[in-house]
């Protein structure tokens, strides 16, 4: 588990990058742009908590297949800090087009408030394409 | 935009399409910095070409971010309860991304109406680069 924060300046920078109205993500009641949750893994996650390493995928062959964000209420507010916990939800294989195997993994990040309630989930599907 | 100001749309209703781009390398680099995704395939032509690509290409989550911006401009941000995308095609510098959405379900919910929309992001070639879905809770 590690902390993730929706710092106002980083939220504004992100809103500008995804061409959202920055003013829509400012103020006491404002919420984050929904895909801002992606910064947890990319900016906040301690290396030793990176469950992707447990998959032993060849990163040169890994594609981002799917991404899903679920909010159990309004998305997190700008300025909020939440705890993040990561787990591998499932792993499966499918035959590839060249006689090899494609490996899939679904990795979930759960975002919890101070009371321990899950307020948001990020579900990422990664695919290791078949070898050459 | 607050929940109370948003009227509940009906099944089949479509949003006004919104285009983003043409995507520049600056757009990609700005998103790399904002999100923390520094995979060099997205900003270093030498690395991208060594990996067999003609040039750098966009970060999938950038166009996913555009699609989320489009969806929240339409039906609100604090009302959003789910946003899902599948990555189908790459986006290259110079591409124009156009986002479209259509309401596919409206279900009564104890707190209002749960509105489900399908979302697509296409390139100027017509290729669908992202297919997605989102749920909103509207009063």
Question: Secondary-structure blueprint of this entry?
Answer:
The complex is a heterodimer of chains A (132) and B (139).
Chain A: E1 2-5, H1 8-17, H2 39-44, H3 52-55, E2 62-71, E3 81-95, E4 101-112, E5 118-128
Antiparallel strand pairs in A: 1-3, 2-5, 3-4, 4-5
Chain B: E1 18-20, H1 25-35, H2 45-50, H3 60-75, E2 80-87, E3 97-109, E4 112-122, E5 128-138
Antiparallel strand pairs in B: 1-3, 2-5, 3-4, 4-5
Notable traits:
heterodimer; A: 132 residues; alpha+beta; 5-stranded antiparallel sheet; 3 helices; 15% helix; B: 139 residues; elongated
Quick structural summary:
Chain A has 132 residues and is an alpha+beta fold. Helices cover 15% and strands 39% of the residues of chain A. Chain B has three helices and five strands.
Helix content of chain B: 10-25%
Question: Can you count the beta strands of chain B?
Answer: 5
Would you identify the regions of chain A where 5 or more consecutive residues have pLDDT less than 50? Answer: none
Number of helices of chain A: 3
Strand share of the residues of chain A?
Answer: 35-45%
Structural class of chain A: alpha+beta
Measure the end-to-end span of chain A. 37 Å
Order of strands, main sheet of chain A, comes to 1-3-4-5-2
* Helix-strand topology string of chain A: EHHHEEEE
Strand content of chain B: 25-35%
- In the sheet with the most strands of chain B, the strands line up as 1-3-4-5-2
Largest sheet of chain A: 5 strands, antiparallel
Q: What is the number of strand segments of chain A?
A: 5
| Cα gyration radius of chain A (Å) | 17 Å
